[in-house]
Amino acid sequence: MTWDLFIEVLGFIVGLLYLWFEYHADRRVWLVSIIMPMISLYVYFSRGLYADFGINIYYLLMAIYGYIHWTRASHKEKPQPDKSKAHRPVTYMPVSLLWFVVPGLAAVWAAIWFILVTFTDSTVPVADSFTTALSIVGTWMLARKWVEQWLAWIMVDAVCGGLYIYKGIYFYAVLYAIYTVVAFAGYAKWKRMAASEQCELNRR
Questions:
Q1: Do residues 178 and 157 lie in contact, with contact meaning Cβ atoms separated by under 8 Å?
Q2: Digit-coded pLDDT (tens) for 121-146
Q3: Are 80 and 86 in contact (CB under 8 A)?
Q4: Which of 52, 86, 124, 189 can pair with 73 through a Cys bridge, CB separation 3.0 to 4.6 Å?
Q5: Measuring CA to CA, which residue among 130, 127, 126 is closest to residue 105?
Q6: DSSP run (H or E) holding 61
Q7: pTM reported for the whole predicted model
Q8: How many domains does the chain have?
Q9: What is the residue range of 40's domain?
C-alpha cells in the first residue's frame, strides 16, 4: 500500500466516525473534526484541490468553536449542575438569516472561484469553489446546531462525490456517496430531535 493510499483510507475511516457522531448530534464530532482536517490537508493539496485544502484550516478553527458552543447550555435551558451534561439543543435556523446567508454564500463562492482561476492551476474551479463555499456555511450551521445544516451537506456531498471520482480519489468518492445518503437520514433525524427537545423545553 502506497503512502497516498494509506492516507486516503485513514481519512475514509475517520470520516465515517465523524459521520456517526454528527448523525447522533454527539459533541465528539468536534474532536474528530480536529483529526480529519489534518489528514485532508495532505490529500487535497497533493491532488490540486486548493480550495478544499484551504477550507480545512477553517475546519480546524470551527472544531474548537463548535465544541465550545455545543457544550454550553442554551439560555433557554435550565442550568445543569453537572457541566458535563450541558448541551445546546437542536433547533432551526431563523428564517430572517436567509437574507444574509444566501448573498454571503454567493459572494464567498465568487471570491474563491476568482482566486482559483487567477492564482492556481485548478482544473475544476467552479465545482471546487462551490463545495468550499457551501461547506463554510454548512460547518457554521453545524456549529450552531441547526437542522438545515443537513440540507447544505446534501448538496456538498453529492457534488464532492462526482468531483473526487473525476480526480481519482476513489476512497473519498465512496465516503461522500455514503455522506449523501446519510445526510438525508440525518436531516430527518435532526427534525425529530428538534421537535422532541422543543417539547421537553415546553414542559419545563
A1: no
A2: 888 899 989 998 999 999 999 999 99
A3: yes
A4: 86
A5: 130
A6: helix 50-70
A7: 0.78
A8: 1
A9: 3-203
